[in-house]
Amino acid sequence: MKNGVVIVGAGHAGVQAAASLREEGYDGPVILIGDENEPPYHKPPLSKTFIKDADAKPQPLRGEAFYSGNAIDYRPGVWIDRIDGGERRLDVSGGGTIAFDRLVLATGSRPRLLKLDGAELAGVVSLRSLADARLIRELSAQSEEVVILGGGFIGLEIAATHVRQRLEAMGVRLLTGTTVARLEGEGGRVSAAITSSGERLPAQLVIIGIGVVPNVELAEAAGIAIANGIRVDQHMQSSIPEILAVGDAASYRHWFTGGDVRLESVQNATDQARLAARTIVGHAEPFAAVPWFWSDIGDMKLQMVGLTQGGDSHVVLGEPAENRFSIYHYAGNRLLGIESVNRPADHMLGRKMLGAGFSPAPHTVAAGPDALKAALAAFSQDEPARASA
Known about the structure:
This protein is α/β, with parallel strands linked by helices. The protein has three domains: about 180 residues, FAD/NAD(P)-binding domain, CATH 3.50.50.60; about 100 residues, FAD/NAD(P)-binding domain (3-Layer(bba) Sandwich), CATH 3.50.50.60; about 90 residues, Enolase-like, domain 1 (2-Layer Sandwich), CATH 3.30.390. Helix content is about 25%, strand content about 30%. Strands 3-2-1-7-17 form a five-stranded parallel β-sheet. Helix 1 packs parallel to helix 8 and helix 9 runs parallel beside helix 11.
Protein backbone atom coordinates (compact mmCIF):
# COMPACT_ATOMS: atom_id res chain seq x y z
CA MET A 1 0.00 0.00 0.00
CA LYS A 2 2.05 2.91 -1.31
CA ASN A 3 -0.10 5.66 0.24
CA GLY A 4 -0.53 3.77 3.48
CA VAL A 5 -3.04 4.40 6.23
CA VAL A 6 -4.39 7.83 7.15
CA ILE A 7 -6.06 8.26 10.52
CA VAL A 8 -8.33 11.27 11.01
CA GLY A 9 -8.61 12.07 14.70
CA ALA A 10 -5.80 12.12 17.26
CA GLY A 11 -7.68 11.17 20.42
CA HIS A 12 -7.52 7.84 22.22
CA ALA A 13 -8.87 5.88 19.25
CA GLY A 14 -6.68 7.50 16.61
CA VAL A 15 -3.43 7.23 18.56
CA GLN A 16 -4.18 3.62 19.49
CA ALA A 17 -4.90 2.77 15.86
CA ALA A 18 -1.51 4.17 14.85
CA ALA A 19 0.26 2.30 17.65
CA SER A 20 -1.54 -0.96 16.92
CA LEU A 21 -0.69 -0.82 13.23
CA ARG A 22 2.99 -0.83 14.12
CA GLU A 23 2.48 -3.49 16.80
CA GLU A 24 0.77 -5.69 14.20
CA GLY A 25 3.77 -5.37 11.89
CA TYR A 26 2.37 -2.88 9.40
CA ASP A 27 5.36 -1.20 7.74
CA GLY A 28 3.67 1.21 5.31
CA PRO A 29 3.16 4.95 5.78
CA VAL A 30 0.97 6.00 8.73
CA ILE A 31 -0.34 9.56 8.89
CA LEU A 32 -2.16 10.72 12.04
CA ILE A 33 -4.20 13.91 11.65
CA GLY A 34 -5.40 16.02 14.58
CA ASP A 35 -7.42 19.22 14.50
CA GLU A 36 -5.93 20.60 17.74
CA ASN A 37 -2.53 22.27 17.94
CA GLU A 38 -1.61 20.06 20.88
CA PRO A 39 0.20 16.76 21.26
CA PRO A 40 -2.47 14.03 21.73
CA TYR A 41 -3.56 13.91 25.39
CA HIS A 42 -5.72 11.94 27.82
CA LYS A 43 -9.22 13.41 28.02
CA PRO A 44 -10.73 11.81 31.17
CA PRO A 45 -8.46 13.77 33.57
CA LEU A 46 -9.78 17.05 32.17
CA SER A 47 -12.97 16.77 34.25
CA LYS A 48 -11.08 15.57 37.32
CA THR A 49 -7.65 16.71 38.48
CA PHE A 50 -6.95 19.17 35.68
CA ILE A 51 -9.69 21.70 36.38
CA LYS A 52 -9.07 21.53 40.14
CA ASP A 53 -5.32 22.10 40.06
CA ALA A 54 -4.01 25.32 38.55
CA ASP A 55 -0.59 23.69 38.07
CA ALA A 56 -1.86 20.48 36.43
CA LYS A 57 -0.53 19.75 32.97
CA PRO A 58 -2.23 17.71 30.22
CA GLN A 59 -1.19 14.08 30.25
CA PRO A 60 0.20 13.02 26.85
CA LEU A 61 -1.16 9.81 25.36
CA ARG A 62 2.35 9.01 24.14
CA GLY A 63 5.70 10.71 24.46
CA GLU A 64 7.00 12.72 21.50
CA ALA A 65 9.58 10.02 20.76
CA PHE A 66 6.79 7.50 20.14
CA TYR A 67 5.71 9.18 16.91
CA SER A 68 9.16 9.67 15.42
CA GLY A 69 10.41 6.31 16.69
CA ASN A 70 7.54 4.47 15.02
CA ALA A 71 7.54 6.48 11.78
CA ILE A 72 4.10 7.92 12.53
CA ASP A 73 3.60 11.21 10.70
CA TYR A 74 1.60 13.25 13.22
CA ARG A 75 0.06 16.39 11.73
CA PRO A 76 -1.59 18.70 14.29
CA GLY A 77 -3.92 21.57 13.52
CA VAL A 78 -5.18 20.04 10.28
CA TRP A 79 -8.84 20.11 9.25
CA ILE A 80 -10.26 17.84 6.57
CA ASP A 81 -12.92 19.31 4.30
CA ARG A 82 -13.84 16.29 2.21
CA ILE A 83 -13.33 12.57 1.72
CA ASP A 84 -13.19 11.31 -1.85
CA GLY A 85 -13.77 7.60 -1.40
CA GLY A 86 -13.48 6.79 -5.09
CA GLU A 87 -10.12 8.51 -5.54
CA ARG A 88 -9.06 7.64 -1.99
CA ARG A 89 -7.96 11.07 -1.00
CA LEU A 90 -8.70 13.77 1.55
CA ASP A 91 -9.12 17.44 0.74
CA VAL A 92 -7.37 19.54 3.37
CA SER A 93 -8.84 22.81 4.60
CA GLY A 94 -6.78 25.65 3.19
CA GLY A 95 -5.57 23.61 0.23
CA GLY A 96 -3.83 20.37 -0.59
CA THR A 97 -4.79 16.70 -0.59
CA ILE A 98 -3.70 13.56 1.24
CA ALA A 99 -3.93 10.21 -0.54
CA PHE A 100 -4.68 6.98 1.31
CA ASP A 101 -5.03 3.26 0.71
CA ARG A 102 -6.96 2.77 3.94
CA LEU A 103 -8.64 5.46 6.01
CA VAL A 104 -9.51 5.22 9.70
CA LEU A 105 -12.09 7.73 10.93
CA ALA A 106 -11.56 8.40 14.63
CA THR A 107 -13.42 11.69 14.53
CA GLY A 108 -15.01 11.35 17.96
CA SER A 109 -17.89 13.49 19.11
CA ARG A 110 -18.65 17.04 20.19
CA PRO A 111 -20.79 18.52 22.98
CA ARG A 112 -24.48 18.80 22.24
CA LEU A 113 -25.44 22.46 21.81
CA LEU A 114 -27.73 24.16 24.27
CA LYS A 115 -30.68 25.65 22.43
CA LEU A 116 -31.67 28.32 24.92
CA ASP A 117 -31.87 32.07 25.02
CA GLY A 118 -28.61 33.21 26.58
CA ALA A 119 -26.53 30.20 25.51
CA GLU A 120 -24.17 32.55 23.67
CA LEU A 121 -23.25 34.51 26.81
CA ALA A 122 -19.69 34.54 28.12
CA GLY A 123 -19.31 32.10 30.99
CA VAL A 124 -21.47 29.40 29.36
CA VAL A 125 -19.14 26.54 28.51
CA SER A 126 -18.96 22.82 27.81
CA LEU A 127 -16.10 20.41 28.35
CA ARG A 128 -14.57 18.35 25.58
CA SER A 129 -11.12 19.67 24.81
CA LEU A 130 -8.02 20.89 26.59
CA ALA A 131 -8.98 24.46 25.65
CA ASP A 132 -12.39 23.94 27.29
CA ALA A 133 -10.78 22.61 30.47
CA ARG A 134 -8.39 25.54 30.66
CA LEU A 135 -11.28 27.97 30.32
CA ILE A 136 -13.35 26.22 33.00
CA ARG A 137 -10.36 26.17 35.34
CA GLU A 138 -9.86 29.89 34.83
CA LEU A 139 -13.55 30.76 35.24
CA SER A 140 -13.97 28.50 38.28
CA ALA A 141 -11.38 30.52 40.17
CA GLN A 142 -13.47 33.64 39.51
CA SER A 143 -16.91 32.18 40.24
CA GLU A 144 -18.68 31.62 43.54
CA GLU A 145 -21.93 30.32 42.03
CA VAL A 146 -21.92 27.61 39.36
CA VAL A 147 -24.81 25.92 37.58
CA ILE A 148 -24.24 22.61 35.82
CA LEU A 149 -26.80 21.50 33.25
CA GLY A 150 -26.88 17.73 32.79
CA GLY A 151 -26.54 14.74 35.07
CA GLY A 152 -24.19 12.52 33.09
CA PHE A 153 -20.54 11.80 33.87
CA ILE A 154 -19.26 15.24 32.93
CA GLY A 155 -21.85 17.04 35.02
CA LEU A 156 -21.47 14.70 37.97
CA GLU A 157 -17.69 14.75 37.98
CA ILE A 158 -17.54 18.51 37.96
CA ALA A 159 -20.12 18.68 40.74
CA ALA A 160 -18.08 16.01 42.59
CA THR A 161 -20.99 13.83 43.66
CA HIS A 162 -23.30 11.04 42.39
CA VAL A 163 -25.72 10.42 45.22
CA ARG A 164 -28.16 13.04 46.46
CA GLN A 165 -27.25 12.63 50.13
CA ARG A 166 -23.55 13.00 49.49
CA LEU A 167 -24.18 15.90 47.14
CA GLU A 168 -26.18 17.81 49.72
CA ALA A 169 -23.55 17.13 52.38
CA MET A 170 -20.98 18.77 50.10
CA GLY A 171 -23.13 21.85 49.55
CA VAL A 172 -24.23 20.99 46.02
CA ARG A 173 -27.93 21.26 45.25
CA LEU A 174 -29.43 18.72 42.86
CA LEU A 175 -32.56 19.56 40.88
CA THR A 176 -34.20 16.63 39.11
CA GLY A 177 -37.20 16.67 36.81
CA THR A 178 -36.32 20.26 36.02
CA THR A 179 -35.35 22.05 32.83
CA VAL A 180 -33.79 25.42 32.23
CA ALA A 181 -35.92 27.89 30.30
CA ARG A 182 -33.26 30.51 29.61
CA LEU A 183 -30.01 32.05 30.75
CA GLU A 184 -29.75 35.67 31.84
CA GLY A 185 -26.73 37.91 31.55
CA GLU A 186 -25.29 41.22 32.58
CA GLY A 187 -22.82 43.02 30.36
CA GLY A 188 -22.61 40.07 28.00
CA ARG A 189 -21.71 37.57 30.76
CA VAL A 190 -24.03 34.97 32.25
CA SER A 191 -25.53 35.90 35.61
CA ALA A 192 -28.29 33.34 36.21
CA ALA A 193 -30.15 30.30 34.94
CA ILE A 194 -33.94 30.48 35.03
CA THR A 195 -35.68 27.13 35.51
CA SER A 196 -38.94 26.07 33.88
CA SER A 197 -40.67 26.71 37.19
CA GLY A 198 -39.39 30.28 37.25
CA GLU A 199 -36.71 29.84 39.92
CA ARG A 200 -33.64 32.02 39.44
CA LEU A 201 -30.30 30.28 40.01
CA PRO A 202 -27.47 32.85 40.24
CA ALA A 203 -24.38 31.81 38.31
CA GLN A 204 -21.15 33.32 37.10
CA LEU A 205 -20.36 30.05 35.35
CA VAL A 206 -22.72 27.64 33.56
CA ILE A 207 -21.32 24.29 32.46
CA ILE A 208 -23.23 22.35 29.82
CA GLY A 209 -23.08 18.57 30.09
CA ILE A 210 -26.10 17.37 28.11
CA GLY A 211 -24.44 14.72 26.00
CA VAL A 212 -22.55 14.62 22.73
CA VAL A 213 -23.14 14.33 19.01
CA PRO A 214 -20.96 12.02 16.87
CA ASN A 215 -18.83 13.73 14.25
CA VAL A 216 -20.15 12.06 11.11
CA GLU A 217 -20.39 14.93 8.64
CA LEU A 218 -17.26 14.00 6.67
CA ALA A 219 -18.37 10.39 6.35
CA GLU A 220 -21.95 11.27 5.48
CA ALA A 221 -20.88 13.68 2.73
CA ALA A 222 -18.73 10.88 1.28
CA GLY A 223 -21.77 8.61 0.98
CA ILE A 224 -20.86 6.38 3.93
CA ALA A 225 -23.83 4.80 5.76
CA ILE A 226 -24.80 6.62 8.96
CA ALA A 227 -26.98 5.31 11.80
CA ASN A 228 -26.46 7.22 15.05
CA GLY A 229 -22.81 7.30 14.06
CA ILE A 230 -20.71 5.91 11.24
CA ARG A 231 -22.14 2.45 10.67
CA VAL A 232 -19.46 -0.27 10.88
CA ASP A 233 -19.46 -4.06 10.77
CA GLN A 234 -17.82 -6.41 13.25
CA HIS A 235 -14.42 -5.66 11.69
CA MET A 236 -14.82 -1.87 12.00
CA GLN A 237 -15.31 -1.45 8.25
CA SER A 238 -17.80 1.11 7.00
CA SER A 239 -20.06 0.72 3.96
CA ILE A 240 -16.91 1.62 1.99
CA PRO A 241 -14.65 -1.26 3.11
CA GLU A 242 -11.41 0.70 2.65
CA ILE A 243 -12.69 3.23 5.19
CA LEU A 244 -12.94 2.13 8.81
CA ALA A 245 -14.36 3.96 11.83
CA VAL A 246 -13.65 3.58 15.54
CA GLY A 247 -14.50 5.20 18.86
CA ASP A 248 -17.24 7.66 19.74
CA ALA A 249 -18.23 8.19 16.10
CA ALA A 250 -18.77 4.49 15.26
CA SER A 251 -22.07 2.61 15.69
CA TYR A 252 -22.41 -1.15 15.37
CA ARG A 253 -24.49 -4.20 16.21
CA HIS A 254 -23.30 -5.28 19.63
CA TRP A 255 -22.35 -8.93 19.99
CA PHE A 256 -23.64 -9.18 23.57
CA THR A 257 -26.96 -7.35 23.44
CA GLY A 258 -27.85 -7.89 19.79
CA GLY A 259 -28.82 -4.22 19.61
CA ASP A 260 -27.26 -1.25 17.84
CA VAL A 261 -24.98 0.83 20.05
CA ARG A 262 -22.52 3.68 19.95
CA LEU A 263 -20.31 3.70 23.02
CA GLU A 264 -18.40 6.69 24.36
CA SER A 265 -15.50 5.41 26.44
CA VAL A 266 -11.74 5.10 26.34
CA GLN A 267 -11.98 1.31 26.55
CA ASN A 268 -14.29 1.08 23.56
CA ALA A 269 -12.17 3.51 21.54
CA THR A 270 -8.92 1.67 22.14
CA ASP A 271 -10.34 -1.83 21.71
CA GLN A 272 -11.96 -0.88 18.41
CA ALA A 273 -8.74 0.79 17.26
CA ARG A 274 -6.76 -2.39 17.97
CA LEU A 275 -9.24 -4.43 15.98
CA ALA A 276 -9.23 -1.95 13.09
CA ALA A 277 -5.45 -2.30 12.87
CA ARG A 278 -5.78 -6.08 12.76
CA THR A 279 -8.39 -5.80 10.03
CA ILE A 280 -6.06 -3.63 7.95
CA VAL A 281 -3.15 -6.09 8.21
CA GLY A 282 -5.42 -9.02 7.32
CA HIS A 283 -6.00 -10.60 10.71
CA ALA A 284 -9.73 -9.96 10.71
CA GLU A 285 -11.79 -11.15 13.63
CA PRO A 286 -15.19 -10.07 14.97
CA PHE A 287 -15.35 -7.39 17.65
CA ALA A 288 -16.21 -9.03 20.96
CA ALA A 289 -14.76 -6.78 23.65
CA VAL A 290 -16.67 -6.52 26.93
CA PRO A 291 -17.57 -2.84 27.47
CA TRP A 292 -16.48 -1.25 30.72
CA PHE A 293 -16.48 2.29 32.02
CA TRP A 294 -15.24 4.21 35.03
CA SER A 295 -15.54 7.57 36.66
CA ASP A 296 -14.12 9.27 39.75
CA ILE A 297 -16.91 11.26 41.39
CA GLY A 298 -15.94 12.96 44.64
CA ASP A 299 -14.94 10.19 47.06
CA MET A 300 -16.50 7.52 44.87
CA LYS A 301 -14.90 5.38 42.21
CA LEU A 302 -17.74 4.33 39.95
CA GLN A 303 -16.96 1.34 37.72
CA MET A 304 -19.29 -0.39 35.28
CA VAL A 305 -18.96 -3.47 33.12
CA GLY A 306 -21.45 -4.74 30.54
CA LEU A 307 -24.55 -3.00 29.22
CA THR A 308 -27.53 -2.98 31.57
CA GLN A 309 -30.32 -1.84 29.26
CA GLY A 310 -33.25 -4.25 29.37
CA GLY A 311 -32.59 -5.45 32.90
CA ASP A 312 -35.57 -6.58 34.95
CA SER A 313 -33.99 -7.45 38.31
CA HIS A 314 -30.86 -6.84 40.31
CA VAL A 315 -28.81 -8.07 43.26
CA VAL A 316 -26.98 -5.69 45.60
CA LEU A 317 -23.74 -6.59 47.35
CA GLY A 318 -22.29 -4.33 50.03
CA GLU A 319 -23.86 -1.34 51.75
CA PRO A 320 -24.76 1.85 49.87
CA ALA A 321 -24.81 3.74 53.16
CA GLU A 322 -21.15 2.82 53.64
CA ASN A 323 -20.27 4.05 50.13
CA ARG A 324 -19.11 0.55 49.05
CA PHE A 325 -21.55 -1.52 47.00
CA SER A 326 -22.18 -3.24 43.68
CA ILE A 327 -25.39 -3.76 41.74
CA TYR A 328 -25.63 -6.84 39.52
CA HIS A 329 -28.22 -6.33 36.77
CA TYR A 330 -30.12 -9.26 35.27
CA ALA A 331 -32.54 -9.97 32.46
CA GLY A 332 -34.15 -13.14 33.71
CA ASN A 333 -31.21 -15.30 34.78
CA ARG A 334 -28.73 -13.62 32.44
CA LEU A 335 -26.20 -11.24 33.96
CA LEU A 336 -26.11 -8.05 31.88
CA GLY A 337 -23.71 -5.88 33.80
CA ILE A 338 -22.39 -4.69 37.13
CA GLU A 339 -22.18 -1.19 38.56
CA SER A 340 -19.75 -0.77 41.46
CA VAL A 341 -18.96 2.04 43.86
CA ASN A 342 -15.63 1.67 45.69
CA ARG A 343 -15.59 -2.11 45.15
CA PRO A 344 -12.93 -2.54 42.44
CA ALA A 345 -12.57 -6.27 43.08
CA ASP A 346 -16.23 -6.78 42.11
CA HIS A 347 -15.60 -4.87 38.90
CA MET A 348 -12.55 -6.89 37.95
CA LEU A 349 -14.31 -10.17 38.69
CA GLY A 350 -17.28 -8.97 36.62
CA ARG A 351 -15.02 -8.30 33.64
CA LYS A 352 -13.65 -11.82 33.91
CA MET A 353 -17.12 -13.36 34.17
CA LEU A 354 -18.64 -11.49 31.23
CA GLY A 355 -15.50 -11.98 29.17
CA ALA A 356 -15.72 -15.74 29.75
CA GLY A 357 -19.43 -15.80 28.90
CA PHE A 358 -20.28 -16.85 32.45
CA SER A 359 -23.60 -15.74 33.91
CA PRO A 360 -23.86 -16.72 37.59
CA ALA A 361 -27.27 -17.34 39.08
CA PRO A 362 -28.57 -14.49 41.25
CA HIS A 363 -28.38 -16.66 44.36
CA THR A 364 -24.68 -17.25 43.66
CA VAL A 365 -24.09 -13.48 43.49
CA ALA A 366 -25.98 -13.04 46.75
CA ALA A 367 -23.63 -15.55 48.41
CA GLY A 368 -20.74 -13.13 47.96
CA PRO A 369 -17.42 -12.76 46.12
CA ASP A 370 -15.89 -16.03 47.32
CA ALA A 371 -18.83 -18.01 45.97
CA LEU A 372 -18.60 -16.11 42.67
CA LYS A 373 -14.90 -16.83 42.30
CA ALA A 374 -15.47 -20.51 42.96
CA ALA A 375 -18.33 -20.64 40.46
CA LEU A 376 -16.24 -18.90 37.79
CA ALA A 377 -13.34 -21.28 38.38
CA ALA A 378 -15.65 -24.29 38.00
CA PHE A 379 -17.14 -22.82 34.82
CA SER A 380 -13.71 -22.15 33.33
CA GLN A 381 -12.56 -25.67 34.14
CA ASP A 382 -15.60 -27.17 32.42
CA GLU A 383 -15.51 -24.83 29.40
CA PRO A 384 -13.09 -26.94 27.25
CA ALA A 385 -15.35 -29.98 27.70
CA ARG A 386 -18.42 -27.97 26.70
CA ALA A 387 -16.65 -26.56 23.64
CA SER A 388 -15.68 -30.02 22.38
CA ALA A 389 -19.04 -31.63 23.08
